[in-house]
């Protein structure tokens, strides 16, 4: 990146700091450099600490991934490390259950690890090593990943080790390997600044990778000629900002890319010289794509021929086209084909190996790349080696000092849990992930966890759904406590150190693995140990040696270099003075021939097409302010402000046709399960489609289910079919039916809860949710923490159940204001303290919900309301105006405040949406901190614009 761009991306108020900076103020406050633990952008953060707790975070101005910027999630990381909150949700000591009908009990590390070594050794001896399975996480550090991989493949001698990255990035891995020869993203973040066309497909970048999206916004300001194309079934905030939006039907990506290549061939936009000199296999692909005519592709994808042709021309004519893609391509039964078809397009037009160009897979998790580097998938070995290659297995065996590495293919994520259910795998060890929320077909997953002879869960949070099934709970450290390295989407390795000491009896993940491994070695009669490490650097050095001569060679790096010179990209071989920004600039690829390979990709319809019984195409995706299963982000009340409760988004026309109003409950049903959810109209969704945030598991939404077995959130609905090449499951598309839920009785309780008890209450209410046909439980608030419990049923709940729930919110005793109409099943119970609402319970009639909740949140005095508090009326107090949804989380700016300012300002005559945005930012500050809300602010501005008065 040139100096001027770097300077402009750095916040002016921040200056360079060393890894650890002692504050000049009184006290032991420190500032420590670390990385954000959410998405794969890999943002650097500066963590403020007083030695006992994290007191604040801000972006690291020197980190090349973000130059000081953070999104809403990253900027609230310090709140997730609050000891008062963490005490309620953290796993702080080992727990052990000796029999299935018993509760887990606290145990010592000594007795727990001895128990595990004894059970695992006995199971291997009786049933063989493949009776053990390990399911780990892209949120582990590289060093953690490495020892887990060595434990499974080197000591236990099974390849049954897979990771939740299988759900995230395995199609990208397979696509890169099939075409370019190695799992190596060829582009870098600087290419965003150099690109002339950016093609975003299968990614709502504005939500999923907000800091990269800020960079795209900056690039567009600097280069007005830059074109952005977005292909997505939904008109997301990312799509709304595009110069060209292609609203393709779910699953039709291969047809789109083949159609674009067809047009590039027809209009001579391919680079024949490059194809001849650096690739192979083009003749076969050319025969295939000739059938992808503009009409066929437009009809298949649900777009216009004109837009298809425009996209192909922009892509092929550009001097530098950069593609950014994520789960929309990867999470598919055709995921590898989608990736390969896009890479084909780049190879044919020579949009690779030069500044501003390349197929750039955006990693989902913070260290999915690091896991791939150490071979943390069932089909891989260290340093991008293939399990099926005998030479690769021999190389790793020599490095580890073992006779050989097993050749039997390991079970991948979905296969592994199917094997647990069938009894083939007896013991499953789960680390730093929550398969009882994130895997598809939750009914199967939970049957597997119930059937396993032993479930071991190594986890920082004891409140995840998976922990409920654990026979052994191993408490692990988490962000701000760990040390090691991570690798982000652009192959950049960051080293960081712990900020806080390990809480309670927690241990680092690598420490847990090594302790267990040494005990298992003793029980197996092994002389010496494969795990001689005393610290993370020794582990990393062995990993480094495994990369020698490989495509990701990092033998020139060290912890010292990473600490002194900052994050570095691979490859960085011995003798190098810097890493490599972009790959394949010389046109030489890591294949047997040195040439890139075209893959003959053929479009196949989705594995579960819609039909008369299941007419809706359901897609899932990320919310702006939440992360994965929300075990961390879900502890921060203010992160619920933008999307406060679970919902299914539908087109207004579909809701009108079924007489569904906003907020009405509906059954969303697939062939695998059903979940009741509120329906909300969305202008992002085309008719016949539905969308649910991927984060909503049973921790936040459930119910007893029609069969009494319970419902499990969004992944009760998703499809377990997976890509034959990558084994990545089809989480993005399912055929569903949506029917209005006739549940006449409604119940709602919300109130302020002491910060030391709020998360514990939310977790404690989870079993209660199963007693209703539908129930959800979320947080709200900013300076204070509130809990909101919502339920619905065919008939009023038992009075004892209602009283129990109310009592948990403090709604009990003489100070509670009460209105009860037992004949109609209506009730309103209100706890008032110091003249303000403290907690509210509504049963039957919920019409007063909005204004009562906003009075509570605003802490407005209610003495003047008098009897209105209890009157069974839909009317709000005179002068009440709801704030509406929070758009800017950083400054707590709501929709109504934005609309009011736009209504009172003469912004239309100022000329452009940018002028209106600047006015909003100047008056309300919204969009001036992390910038995550800027696309939504622009959307509101354009919706307020009279036709013809302002340019879009």
Give the tags.
952 residues, alpha/beta, N-terminal domain of TfIIb, Rossmann fold, Dimethylsulfoxide Reductase, domain 2, 6 domains, seven-stranded mixed β-sheet, seven-stranded antiparallel β-sheet, 32% helix, 19% strand, globular, disordered N terminus, disordered C terminus
How would you explain this protein's 3D organization?
This protein has 952 residues and is of the alpha/beta class. The protein folds into six domains: 3-81, N-terminal domain of TfIIb, CATH 2.20.25; 95-168 and 368-531, Rossmann fold, CATH 3.40.50.740; 170-361, Dimethylsulfoxide Reductase, domain 2 (3-Layer(aba) Sandwich); 608-741, Beta Barrel (Barwin-like endoglucanases), CATH 2.40.40; 742-880, no CATH class; 886-944, Orthogonal Bundle (Arc Repressor Mutant, subunit A). The strands form nine sheets. It has a seven-stranded mixed beta sheet with strand order 6-5-19-18-17-7-8, with helices on both faces. α5 links the parallel β7 and β8 (161-163). The longest helix is centred in the N-terminal third of the chain and has 19 residues, at 109-127. The radius of gyration is 28 Å and the shape is globular. The two termini are 31 Å apart. The model is unreliable at 1-27 and 947-952 (pLDDT under 50). Its cofactor is [4Fe-4S] cluster; Mo-bis(molybdopterin guanine dinucleotide). It comes from Noviherbaspirillum saxi. Keywords: 4Fe-4S, Iron, Iron-sulfur, Metal-binding, Molybdenum, Nitrate assimilation, Oxidoreductase. Belongs to the prokaryotic molybdopterin-containing oxidoreductase family. NasA/NapA/NarB subfamily. Residues 29-85 form the 4Fe-4S Mo/W bis-MGD-type domain.
């Amino acid at each position: 990146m040139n100096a001027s761009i770097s300077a402009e991306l750095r916040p002016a108020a921040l200056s360079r700091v060393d890894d650890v900076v002692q504050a000049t103020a009184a006290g032991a406050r420190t500032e420590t450099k670390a990385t954000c633990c959410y998405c794969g952008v890999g943002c650097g953060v500066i963590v403020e600490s007083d030695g006992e707790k994290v007191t604040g975070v801000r972006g690291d101005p020197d980190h090349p991934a973000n130059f000081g910027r953070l999104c809403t999630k990253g900027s609230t990381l310090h709140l997730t490390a609050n000891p008062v909150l963490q005490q309620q949700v953290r796993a702080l000591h080992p727990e052990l259950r000796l029999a299935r009908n018993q509760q887990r009990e606290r145990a010592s590390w000594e007795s727990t690890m001895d128990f595990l070594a004894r059970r695992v050794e006995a199971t291997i001896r009786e049933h063989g090593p493949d009776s053990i399975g390990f399911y780990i996480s892209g949120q582990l550090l590289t060093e953690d990943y490495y020892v887990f991989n060595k434990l499974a493949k080197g000591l236990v001698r099974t390849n049954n080790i897979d990771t939740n990255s299988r759900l995230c990035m395995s199609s990208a891995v397979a696509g890169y390997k099939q075409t370019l020869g190695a799992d190596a993203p060829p582009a870098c973040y600087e290419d965003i600044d150099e690109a002339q066309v950016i093609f975003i497909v299968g990614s709502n970048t504005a939500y999923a990778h907000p800091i990269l999206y800020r960079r795209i916004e900056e690039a567009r300001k600097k280069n007005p000629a830059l074109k952005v194309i977005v292909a997505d079934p939904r008109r997301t905030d990312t799509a709304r900002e595009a110069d060209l939006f292609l609203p393709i039907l779910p699953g039709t990506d291969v047809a789109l890319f083949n159609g674009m290549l067809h047009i590039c061939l027809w209009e001579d936009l391919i680079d024949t010289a490059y194809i001849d000199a650096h690739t192979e296999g083009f003749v076969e692909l050319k025969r295939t794509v000739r059938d992808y005519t503009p009409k066929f592709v437009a009809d298949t994808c649900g777009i216009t021929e004109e837009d298809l042709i425009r996209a192909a021309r922009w892509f092929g004519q550009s001097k530098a086209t950069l593609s950014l893609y994520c789960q929309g391509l990867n999470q598919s039964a055709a995921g590898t084909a989608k990736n390969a078809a896009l890479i084909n397009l780049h190879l044919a037009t020579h949009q690779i190996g030069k500044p501003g160009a390349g197929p750039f897979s955006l990693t989902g998790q913070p260290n999915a790349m690091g896991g791939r580097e150490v071979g943390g998938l069932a089909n891989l070995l260290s340093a991008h080696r293939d399990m099926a290659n005998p030479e690769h297995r021999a190389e790793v065996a020599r490095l580890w000092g073992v006779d050989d590495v097993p050749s039997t293919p390991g079970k991948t994520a979905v296969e592994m849990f199917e094997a647990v259910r069938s009894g083939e795998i007896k013991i499953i060890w789960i680390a730093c992930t929550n398969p009882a929320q994130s895997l598809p077909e939750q009914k199967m997953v939970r049957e597997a966890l119930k059937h396993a002879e032993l479930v071991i869960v190594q986890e920082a949070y004891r409140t995840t759904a998976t922990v409920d099934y654990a026979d052994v709970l191993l408490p692990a450290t988490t962000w701000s406590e760990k040390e090691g390295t991570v690798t982000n989407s652009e192959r950049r390795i960051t080293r960081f150190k712990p900020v806080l000491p390990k809480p309670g009896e927690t241990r680092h993940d690598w420490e847990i693995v090594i302790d267990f491994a040494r005990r298992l070695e003793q029980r197996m009669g092994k002389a010496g140990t494969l795990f001689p490490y005393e610290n993370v650097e020794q582990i990393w050095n062995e990993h480094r040696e495994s990369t020698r001569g490989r495509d990701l060679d990092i033998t020139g790096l060290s912890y010292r270099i990473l600490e002194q010179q900052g994050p570095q990209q691979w490859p960085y071989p011995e003798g190098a003075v810097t890493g490599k920004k972009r790959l394949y600039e010389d046109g030489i690829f890591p294949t047997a021939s040195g040439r890139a390979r075209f893959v003959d990709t053929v479009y196949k319809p989705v594995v579960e097409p819609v039909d008369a019984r299941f007419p809706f195409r359901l897609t899932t995706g990320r919310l702006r302010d939440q992360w994965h299963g929300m075990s961390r982000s879900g502890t921060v009340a203010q992160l619920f402000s933008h999307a406060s409760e679970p919902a299914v988004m539908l087109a207004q026309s579909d809701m009108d046709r079924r007489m569904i109003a906003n907020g009405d409950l509906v059954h969303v049903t697939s062939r695998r399960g059903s979940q009741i959810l509120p329906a909300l109209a969305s202008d992002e969704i085309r008719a016949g489609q539905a969308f649910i945030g991927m984060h909503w598991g049973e921790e936040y939404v459930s119910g007893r289910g029609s069969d009494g077995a319970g419902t499990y959130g969004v992944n009760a609905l998703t499809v377990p079919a997976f890509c034959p090449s990558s084994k990545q499951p089809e989480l993005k598309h399912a055929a569903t039916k949506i029917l209005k839920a006739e549940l006449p009785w409604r119940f709602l309780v919300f109130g302020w809860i002491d910060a030391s008890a709020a998360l514990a209450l939310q977790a404690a209410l989870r079993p209660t949710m199963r007693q209703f046909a539908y129930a959800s439980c979320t947080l709200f608030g900013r300076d204070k923490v509130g809990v909101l419990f919502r339920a619905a049923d065919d008939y009023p709940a038992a009075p004892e159940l209602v009283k129990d729930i109310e009592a948990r919110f403090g709604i009990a005793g003489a100070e509670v204001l009460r209105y009860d109409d037992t004949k109609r099943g209506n009730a309103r119970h209100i706890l008032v303290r110091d003249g303000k609402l403290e907690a509210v319970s509504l049963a039957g009639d919920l019409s007063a919900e909005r204004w009562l909740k906003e009075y509570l949140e605003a802490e407005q005095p209610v003495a003047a309301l008098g009897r209105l508090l209890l009157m069974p009326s839909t009317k709000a107090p005179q002068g009440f105006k709801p704030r509406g949804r929070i758009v800017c989380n950083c400054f707590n700016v709501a929709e109504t405040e934005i609309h009011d300012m736009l209504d009172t300002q003469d912004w239309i005559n100022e000329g452009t949406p940018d002028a209106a945005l600047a006015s909003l930012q100047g008056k309300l500050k919204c969009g001036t901190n992390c910038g995550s809300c800027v696309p939504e602010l622009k959307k509101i501005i354009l919706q307020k614009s009279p036709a013809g008065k302002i340019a879009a």
